[in-house]
Design goal:
By secondary structure, this protein is mostly helical. The protein is built from 4 helices and no strands.
Length: about 120
């Protein structure tokens, strides 16, 4: 498992960046500044995919599917949010971000932390 420690640490760090992006998206939607939202949603999707691709070999060691399930659910919500933005339905976008996006992200990140934390602190 030692050979995966750096990958785990990087996944956790990138997940923290995703959290910052979600907060920033929410703030921008609240103040009516929508110009950066689509780019940030796409960057967030790319980051989630990067984490997913990097941790798949590790998750086989843990035999836990809850983390991948959380990633899949979060990716679906990110796609919904992109569609809502492109349709200029910003009220629904804010709602989906608050009700689904952020809670799903927090749940997924929590599961990943739980699985990886013992290895990245040693």
């Amino acid at each position: 498992m030692e050979k995966y420690t750096e990958v785990m640490r990087n996944a956790v760090d990138l997940s923290d960046t995703i959290h910052e992006a979600l907060q920033y998206i929410n703030e921008q939607l609240e103040i009516g500044n929508h110009s950066e939202v689509l780019g940030l949603l796409k960057d967030t999707s790319d980051a989630v995919i990067a984490i997913e691709n990097s941790i798949i070999p590790i998750l086989k060691q843990f035999s836990t599917e809850i983390i991948l399930k959380g990633i899949d659910e979060f990716k679906v919500v990110l796609e919904q949010m992109e569609i809502l933005y492109q349709g200029n339905n910003l009220t629904a976008l804010k709602e989906v971000l608050s009700i689904k996006g952020i809670p799903l992200y927090i749940q997924w990140r929590s599961e990943m932390y739980k699985a990886f934390y013992p290895y990245i602190v040693s």
